[in-house]
Design a protein that fits this description.
Elements lengths: L5 H19 L7 H24 L8 E11 L2 E9 L1 H24 L6 H20 L3 H19 L6 H32 L4 H7 L5 H18 L8 H4 L5 H10 L4 H8 L1 H5 L2 H22 L5 H20 L3 H31 L17 H15 L5 H14 L3 H30 L16 H22 L3 H6 L15 H24 L13 H7 L4 H47 L6 H23 L1
Antiparallel strand pairs: 1-2
Helix pairs in contact: 1-2, 1-4, 2-3, 2-4, 3-4, 3-10, 3-15, 3-19, 4-5, 5-6, 6-8, 8-11, 8-13, 10-15, 11-14, 13-14, 13-18, 14-15, 14-17, 14-18, 15-16, 15-17, 15-19, 16-17, 16-18, 16-19, 17-18, 17-19, 17-21, 18-21
Length: about 625
């Protein structure tokens, strides 16, 4: 039997680590990183223990809920602070703590020369704890607490080097754009309570069957808004590239394996909402399709290795969101791609950090070249992640991404053909820009400056990269063999029956591999056979110019939201000064004027006061006489 505190340990261990390191201050500088890593690893082993218990139970008995205390009790609004562990949340628990622990280990060496390393590890532990609360909460309100905690921790980590103004600005940008998305989650919670009287997952699922389609659509759209903010999806995706300002382990943890997948978790957890609200579900698919192309196109023009990987993350999350919008079958495949992506993308981000470590923190790929000779382990581990994201068999992406492409084609009608073609085109563009990253970084002639001395990273850095590379090779097969993950998650999703098969898996895989081969070939011809300029050329096509500027997303936000907002603010300020402050100042002026007028009768002479008394007495007598007549 599960002990009464077993689920609490998952969150309490990293949370305690964060509190100890922050409260102990400089006294923990020498051992704080070790404590944080140990507690993150301990949380991972607790997760493995919970998985072993869950596997030994039947499907109906696998979900477990633990009430901690009564949180809110106001009239009919009653919320318990409770944790829920089921087949979906255990997948995220193991991903968060497993990949998170590897990133902790990597960071011990990567951040070894930073004087604030202890604070960095405190923030890492805080992020792990918040993310675990997000996926373990048994209601939308409990999830919301973790959701906001993740936003705070990401703000602290992205702006860790906030002494640089650009980095501080990047963290504020991420924080503000995520708050916009968070408003969607707030409104979804409000609508759910107003229409269903509950915000627990079980309560909302039960009430969804007799709730109006309009209310369910409203909740679904608001949940999608929340997901677009946290998972950097269109139209709230502009913060992700700037978030690369944080230390590279932050990019691997937050922007590859955990935080940006929170939106996918929210949608799949809310499957009962979207299944009953076709309009909201269609919008999920549209957002995913737009974003997977949006990120892929941006990735083709980025010379900053981390920003190229960030654009790739945006695109791959788009695949997951699209898959989650395709219904019961798509939910499981979205989670599969999320898990495999956690391995290969985190591995590639750590590989980028390894390259930067050997290249004096240089991020411009045009100043790399031929690094495979000097960094063979980094090249091998990064290369395995590269093959996985391309979907080359038997690597992980082949199983997870191809299943989303297949599901898209088989979703029916013109919609299926359009979505299938979009996902195929995205696969081809992914192959192009990721091959570009490989060629510019590891092959060809060296283009680095004379002061650069590339070298392999220490074992504390390449060991986590090697473990993630193993996951890049094996995770797809393990999760798909015998429909392991699909069967594991199936009790959580309503089965609407088998969809018509437009294209068989063999045909889909063949088409996907053909697109990948075309993308690789174009990149090879363009960058391997031609001299790569150490400085980005300016005489480029209009498309390249726009892609370098993130498809003008910041300009759009500035023109549509920022500048009108500034103009509105200016009008409100002037209105406040003229009307509200003017009214207050007017009352003051009247009081001052009246006082000045009355002050004239205060002469200080007794005869004047006596005369006033006489006049007042005569006036009073006259008034009485008039009234009594």
């Amino acid at each position: 039997m599960m002990t009464s505190t077993s689920l609490v340990y998952l969150i309490a261990l990293p949370l305690a680590g964060s509190a100890i390191l922050l409260l102990a201050g400089r006294r923990s500088d020498k051992w704080g990183h070790l404590l944080a890593t140990a507690l993150s690893a301990s949380s991972f082993f607790v997760g493995l223990y919970q998985l072993s218990l869950m596997v030994g139970r039947t499907n109906s008995d696998r979900p477990v809920t633990q009430k901690l205390f009564e949180w809110i009790s106001v009239g009919t609004f009653k919320i318990d602070a409770s944790l829920m562990l089921d087949q979906l949340s255990i997948c995220f628990v193991l991903l968060i703590t497993g990949v998170g622990t590897l990133i902790h280990i990597y960071s011990i060496s990567y951040m070894s020369h930073d004087p604030d390393r202890r604070r960095f590890f405190a923030f890492l532990n805080l992020f792990i704890a918040a993310m675990l609360l997000l996926v373990l909460g048994d209601s939308y309100l409990n999830l919301y607490v973790g959701w906001e905690g993740v936003g705070l921790a990401s703000y602290l980590l992205i702006g860790f080097w906030n002494q640089k103004p650009a980095y501080a600005t990047a963290s504020k940008k991420a924080f503000v754009m995520n708050r916009i998305g968070d408003m969607g989650l707030s409104f979804a919670i409000m609508i759910a309570f107003a229409t269903m009287g509950t915000v627990s997952f079980s309560g909302v699922k039960e009430a969804a069957g007799h709730t109006s389609t309009a209310a369910l659509t409203g909740i679904g759209i608001m949940l999608l808004v929340a997901a677009t903010g946290k998972s950097a999806q269109f139209p709230l995706q502009a913060w992700l590239g700037d978030a690369m300002a944080g230390p590279t382990p932050v990019s691997a943890l937050i922007h590859a394996a955990t935080m940006v997948t929170a939106g996918v978790y929210l949608i799949t957890r809310s499957n009962f909402i979207f299944d009953a609200a076709p309009t909201a579900q269609l919008l999920v698919v549209i957002v995913g399709a737009i974003t997977l192309m949006f990120g892929a196109l941006i990735g083709t023009a980025k010379d900053d290795i981390k920003k190229a990987l960030a654009a790739s993350t945006m695109s791959q999350i788009g695949y997951m969101i699209l898959g989650a919008g395709l219904g019961p079958v798509g939910y499981a495949f979205a989670i599969m791609h999320l898990l495999t992506h956690g391995f290969f993308k985190a591995g590639m981000f750590l590989g980028a950090g390894s390259v930067m470590h050997g290249m004096n923190d240089e991020v411009n790929m045009r100043k790399y070249g031929a690094l495979r000779k000097f960094m063979p382990i980094t090249f091998a581990t990064f290369g395995l992640g590269y093959l996985a994201i391309l979907g080359v068999p038997p690597f992980a992406g082949f199983y997870s991404k191809d299943m989303i492409i297949e599901t898209a084609f088989n979703s029916g009608g013109a919609k299926g053909i359009i979505l299938g073609c979009v996902t195929l085109l995205g696969a081809g563009i992914t192959a192009f820009y990721m091959t570009r990253v490989m060629i510019l970084t590891f092959t060809g002639k060296s283009r680095w400056d004379e002061e650069a001395h590339p070298h392999e990273s220490p074992w504390l850095m390449w060991l986590p990269m090697a473990i993630l590379a193993i996951g890049s090779v094996t995770s797809g097969y393990l999760l798909s063999h015998g429909d392991t993950l699909v069967n594991w998650l199936s009790p959580l999703f309503v089965n609407h029956g088998e969809r018509a098969e437009l294209l068989s898996p063999v045909v889909v895989s063949g088409l996907a591999l053909a697109m990948v081969a075309i993308g690789v070939a174009i990149a090879f011809v363009k960058y391997s056979r031609n001299e790569v300029a150490a400085v980005a050329p300016t005489d480029v096509s209009i498309f390249t110019t726009i892609a370098r500027q993130d498809l003008l997303q910041d300009r759009f936000n500035e023109a549509v939201f920022m500048q009108p907002g500034q103009a509105l603010t200016a009008v409100l300020v002037k209105t406040d000064e003229a009307v509200i402050d003017g009214a207050v100042r007017g009352v003051g002026r009247i009081a001052l004027g009246s006082g000045s007028a009355l002050r004239g009768i205060q002469t200080g002479f007794v005869r004047s006061y006596a005369a006033l008394i006489l006049i007042g007495a005569v006036a009073l007598i006259a008034a009485i006489w008039v009234v009594t007549q």
